[in-house]
Amino acid sequence: MDLNTLTQFLAVARLEHLSRAAGELRVAQPSLSRSIARLEAELGTPLFERGGRLRLNEAGRLFRDYVERSLGELEAGRRAVAEAAAQGPGTVRLASETFLAFGGPLAAFKRAHPGVEIELHQLSAQETARRLRAQDVDLAVVSQPVAAEGLESVLLLDEEVGLAVPVGDPLAHRTTVGVEELAQRPFIAARPGHWQRRLLDRLFAARGLVPRIVCESDEAGAIAELISAGLGVGLVPAIARRTATRLPLVWVGVDSPECRRSLTLFWDGQARLPAAARRLREAIAGWDWADGGQADDSQADGGF
Predict the structure, then answer these.
(1) Structurally, how many domains does the chain consist of?
(2) Model pTM score
(3) Is 84 exposed, middle or buried (0-12, 13-18, 19+ CB in 10 A)?
(4) Which of 25, 173, 184, 303 is the most buried (most CB within 10 A)?
């Protein structure tokens, strides 16, 4: 059971697809298949269900968590040794669902620490906790609850979420709108799993309604563009109202106390964060998010 085999197992476990994993690892698929078979033989149990689509079974999920943690500890040890040997100012890995609101704090951090390399990882909230515990990332900022043993957090921002409508929309002159009034309106929404989509679905479900979604997108900028083009309406956080000035959008309040989001910074409290990660944690936690959050980013186009 060598490190290469474990790394290969994690790739197959993440993709649940042998040929795609082989392509990512740049190995032949038959060779990868034999490696996984040898690993299963050594463990004495299958790790995947092979009826139809390849999927991790219960034993595979259990083993994956241990392997991720073990390899994460090895990587943390390598980084700690490099830091102790003063091999450069270090690297910090930051994950988030979107980075549109990070221009200001990251620019300020780079000015203060120009030698630190920042790796950005765009992850879903569901994957964030697992990647933090595996030490694949050092810090994560998410807009949804993240539950995992050992994680610590600090609240960065609790803000109102409103409705973006195009200029000239019948709602554009309103200060607030009720959720029931939006039952038949077309929505430009994020894909399932994103905080914005979860909030939209939750608001409507609480009233026995289902939102009429005409477009799903992973691109925050595209959502804003489509709303401004008159193709629909969409939920936007208050920070977007303050920073998005390029597009002709009107922000309308939603008459519901539940229409809010919390921006939270997470890290693994059981891991030893490198100095660069500790500095970035302090910079993000100390940033004045309530006052705009990206004072240096003049290119904001939606801030979702």
Answers:
(1) 3
(2) 0.70
(3) exposed
(4) 303
